[in-house]
Each structure stands twice: as C-alpha cells, then as structure tokens.
C-alpha cells in the first residue's frame, strides 16, 4: 500500500512538473542555435543570411555575426588574430547599431566568393570580384575558408550597396569587413 501511495505521489509530481508552462522567450543560446540553423554553411546559407541582413530586423541579425576570440584565430593567422579582435571591438562591435541594407529599389542580390587559397594567389576572379585590399590580406588568412562578398543592386545594375568579409567558422557565420585595414594600423 505504501508503495502504491509513493508511486501515485511521484506520478503526481512528474505530471505537475511536465504541465508547467514553458517560457515563450528563447534563451540566448537557443536563439543563437536557431540562427545558426537558419543559415547553414555554404552559398545557400550565405544567401539566406544576406537576405536576412536587409530585412526589417537586419540589425539584430548583424549582432549574431560578431566574432569571438576563437573565431578571429580561425580566420586570421596568429600574427593578426589578436590585432583583428582589438580593431573590430573599436571600429565595428563597439555597441553602435550596424545595419546592412540597400535602398528599397535594390532588390537584386549579387554574391561573390573566394577561398582563402585563391585570395592568396590573387587569381583573376578574386581580383575582379573583391576589393584590392584582399591582395595584401591574403597572407594573413587561415587556409581552407571561403570569404563572401555581396551587393544589393537595382535590377539590371552592377553597382549598388556592397559588403564583404562574411566567413563561416566554428559552426556559425561571422563578419570581418575591410580586414585589410587591420594591416594599416
């Protein structure tokens, strides 16, 4: 009889614990995980991320691209990683709102990508598609990465609002724009 009463009491506690309402507010870790899942590695994930960056909540999406010390080390060689972290903390990730968007008329998205090996070799495609600062930066990039550049343009136009420095490392996207400026500091 005591066992039955104990079992019923435990069942009641279990049901009570399971029936407590769950919070609708995701934890920061859950938010980061869902953001990472929404933007997988590769061109498809990069494109989805670039589209999200120009959406109404794009400034919130930009915040998810802030690198950690480990991310800087995954992108830049040892001689530049800590310098990059200091550079970006003052120039970009300093608490100011950052928005990446084109005008309402810039509905087209043009995407360019280059491996760090191609950047180091400064291939004709990289020279055509990326800013010249990458030629100097190439020697300071870790091998095996792909760097993305993109433009929001009006239909049929080549020029528009251009951005670069999107990289997938450590299972998420980060943004390190105009990284060649680190070399000039």
Short description:
With 185 residues, this protein is an alpha+beta fold.
Question: What portion of residues belong to β-strands?
Answer: 15-25%
Tell the overall outline. Answer: globular
Uncertain regions: pLDDT < 50 for 5+ in a row? 1-33
Arithmetic mean pLDDT: 84
Radius of gyration: 22 Å
- The helical percent reads 40-55%
Which structural category do the helix and sheet elements fall into?
alpha+beta
Your description of this structure?
By secondary structure, this protein is of the alpha+beta class. It has one domain (39-183). Helices cover 48% and strands 16% of the residues. It is built from ten helices and four strands; from the N terminus they run H-H-H-H-H-H-E-H-H-H-E-E-E-H. It has helices at residues 2-19, 28-38, 43-53, 58-63, 69-75, 78-91, 116-121, 124-129, 133-137, 180-183, and strands spanning 108-115, 146-153, 160-169, 172-175. The chain has a four-stranded antiparallel beta sheet with strand order 1-2-3-4, sandwiched between helices. A hairpin with a 2-residue loop joins strand 3 and strand 4 (172-175). The longest helix is centred in the first third of the chain and has 18 residues, at 2-19. It is globular. The model is unreliable at 1-33 (pLDDT under 50). Keywords: Signal. This is Lipoprotein.
């Amino acid at each position: 009889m005591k066992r039955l009463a104990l079992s019923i009491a435990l069942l009641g506690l279990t049901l009570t614990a399971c029936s407590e309402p769950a919070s609708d507010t995701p934890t920061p870790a859950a938010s980061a995980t869902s953001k990472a899942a929404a933007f997988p590695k590769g061109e498809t994930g990069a494109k989805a991320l670039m589209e999200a960056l120009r959406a109404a909540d794009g400034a919130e999406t930009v915040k998810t691209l802030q690198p950690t010390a480990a991310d800087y080390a995954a992108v830049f060689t040892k001689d530049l990683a800590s310098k990059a972290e200091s550079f970006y903390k003052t120039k970009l990730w300093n608490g100011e709102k950052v928005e990446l968007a084109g005008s309402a008329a810039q509905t087209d998205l043009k995407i360019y990508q280059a491996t760090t090996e191609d950047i180091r070799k400064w291939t004709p495609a990289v020279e055509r598609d990326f800013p010249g600062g990458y030629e100097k930066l190439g020697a300071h990039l870790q091998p095996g990465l792909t760097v993305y550049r993109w433009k929001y343009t009006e239909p049929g136009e080549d020029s528009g609002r251009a951005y670069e420095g999107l990289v997938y490392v450590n299972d998420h996207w980060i943004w390190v724009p105009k990284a060649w400026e680190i070399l000039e500091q």
